[in-house]
Amino acid sequence: MPLPSFQEQFAALIAAPSVSCTQPNWDQSNAPVIELLAAWLGDLGFTCETQQIAPGKFNLLASFGSGPGGLVLAGHSDTVPFDAALWQTDPLKLTEVGDRWVGLGSCDMKGFFALAIEAVRPLLDQPFKQPLLILATCDEESSMAGARALADAGRPLGRAAVIGEPTGLKPIRLHKGVMMERIDILGQSGHSSDPALGRSALEAMQDVMGELRGLRAQWQREFNNPQFGVPQPTLNLGCIHGGDNPNRICGQCALEFDLRPLPGMDPEQLREAIRGKLQPLALKHQVRIDYGPLFPAVPPFEQAADAELVRVAERLTGHSAQAVAFGTEAPYLQQLGCETLVLGPGDIDCAHQPGEHLELARIEPTVAILRQLIQHYCLTRSEDVQRR
Fold first, then answer.
1. Is 118 a catalytic residue?
2. Mean pLDDT score, 297-311
3. Close Cβ partners of 5 (under 8 Å, ≥ 6 residues apart)
4. What is the pTM of this model?
5. H-helix segments, the chain
6. Residue ranges of the Peptidase M20 dimerisation domain (predicted)?
7. Which of left, alpha, beta for 231 (phi over 0: left; psi -120 to 50: alpha)?
8. pLDDT at residue 222 above 90?
9. Residue-wise DSSP of 89-105
10. What is the pLDDT of residue 387?
11. Catalytic site residue 140?
12. Dihedrals phi, psi of 372, to nearest 5 degrees
């Protein structure tokens, strides 16, 4: 059976559901995406290794060629949840609308794998002097468990790694950290006709959110890095769940939020500041407040401005390397000894929302850049590059 065309592969990836979410009712396996990629890459001659990270969650490491150096083209196989009613098209069907392809994961970032395959196809009949690795991870949109497992295993990957997150084809060498946190309040339910019959977890949470907003304002006054488009740390109150009926005093309430620290901000010090605000509120409302991380913090990322990969990417894209506010798996690949850069065709402005899309005009330039990166790192010996 012939390999599907580029557009067919792109559409198949979009159609394969792979939501990763902190809420169990939304969370899905990423196996359908991994199985597609393993089949396609295997047919092209790649050696494919699937690693189970948790039940229903997998990484794929596909390699072509062998040796110590080479290039890693990396991405995550999962997407965020979606509200189909807010989409004007089917989120799980690739739809061409004007000058763009619309679909969940088209930008962030399953479509990148189809672009990587398209880039390497015409090169496979040439001798690879260094290996090309295509890495697909699980759960980047929640726990980053796939990338963490790779870093914990400590297995070297390649000389350079490019992560195809949405950057508008501008190289990114710096990003903020990511903390995803949860606060649980246990109060006492009771009949709403008499407030003395209970202790409202929802009213206590209102005060908690006020303190978090106060800390956010304080940190934004104290910390600033002009290299970032959003130069201050951010704190987003992401989702809240509490109570069950209007005529019952709310006995339980939970809040999940994320905090994006700048390089130099210590996650544990930030958590200690939050705990210091919560303790007085527990006494004031006579409730129990539990607080902790949903997942370990993602470290801030910085690749040296004079790294070979940064210089090569700047030359190929025509853009100087920049900083972004969102987090990626870059710190974990960097821990494995890769010079690491974030570079992909999508726009972060349309990620995580209805109508996520990829501009058609980005497809050809992306394929060309990826192909040149493969030629630089895999078809040319490292000593030949150093003599240039």
1. no
2. 93
3. none
4. 0.83
5. 6-15, 31-43, 111-120, 145-153, 201-222, 267-285, 308-317, 330-335, 363-378, 382-387
6. 175-284
7. alpha
8. yes
9. S-TTS-EEETTEEESTT
10. 41
11. yes
12. -70, -35
